[in-house]
Structure formats: C-alpha cells, structure tokens
C-alpha cells in the first residue's frame, strides 16, 4: 500500500469519528437519545463501503474510545461506573 493512501484513509477515519462525535454531542446537549451510538456504526459502514476494511477498523477503534471518553459517565475517563455503561460502550465492537 502507498503510504499516502494509508495516511489519507486514517485521516478520513479520524474525520468521520470526529464529525459523528460532534453530532452526538449536539444531540445529547438537547436531550438524551437512546442508542445514539448507532450513528458511529452507520458512519463506519459507509466508510467501509467507500474506502475498505482498514479505515473502517481504525474508525471503529476510534469510535469506541471517543464514545467512552466523551459520553459514558464518568466523563473523560476510560473507566465505567456500572456494567450497563460498559455494555453500552462495548456495543460499538
């Protein structure tokens, strides 16, 4: 693989996850929506269909980490206070 293509695909994966995280943050600031993390799955599926497996794998790992960091209490940590929240963040995998 060409190094530029790999870098571009990784950057695109970061952009997809960041964009979806911004949308989820905006929606969650207004009110709670159950299963909003499924937006990551839709974005990753579109990315996989357009760019292939490896960018989708990068995006799925980043989506899991972003959702856990920004939206699972306690915020801004990778620990969870309850088993339900652990299941909720693990659903991205």
Multimerization status: single chain
Helical percent range? over 70%
Largest sheet: none
Number of strands: 0
The class by helix and strand makeup works out as: mainly alpha
Q: In the residues, how many domains can be counted? A: 1
Total number of helical segments? 4
Shape verdict: elongated
Radius of gyration using CA atoms only: 14 Å
Q: Quote the average pLDDT.
A: 87
Distance between the termini: 26 Å
Topology pattern, helix = H, strand = E: HHHH
Low-confidence blocks of residues? none
Percent range for β-strand residues: under 5%
Protein architecture, described:
The chain starts with a helix and ends with a helix. The protein is elongated and about 40 Å long. By secondary structure, it is mainly alpha-helical. The model has no long low-confidence stretch (mean pLDDT 87). Helix 2 runs antiparallel to helix 3. Helix content is 74%, strand content 0%. It has one domain. The longest helix has 28 residues. The protein contains four helices and no strands.
SSE inventory with pairings:
Layout lengths: L2 H28 L7 H14 L1 H19 L11 H8 L3
């Amino acid at each position: 693989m060409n190094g530029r293509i790999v870098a571009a695909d990784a950057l695109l994966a970061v952009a997809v996850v960041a964009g979806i995280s911004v949308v989820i943050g905006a929606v969650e600031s207004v009110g709670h929506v159950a299963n909003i993390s499924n937006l990551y799955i839709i974005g990753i599926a579109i990315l996989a269909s357009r760019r292939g497996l490896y960018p989708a794998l990068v995006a799925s790992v980043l989506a899991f980490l972003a959702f856990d960091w920004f939206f699972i209490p306690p915020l801004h940590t990778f620990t969870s206070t309850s088993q339900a929240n652990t299941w909720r963040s693990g659903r991205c995998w």
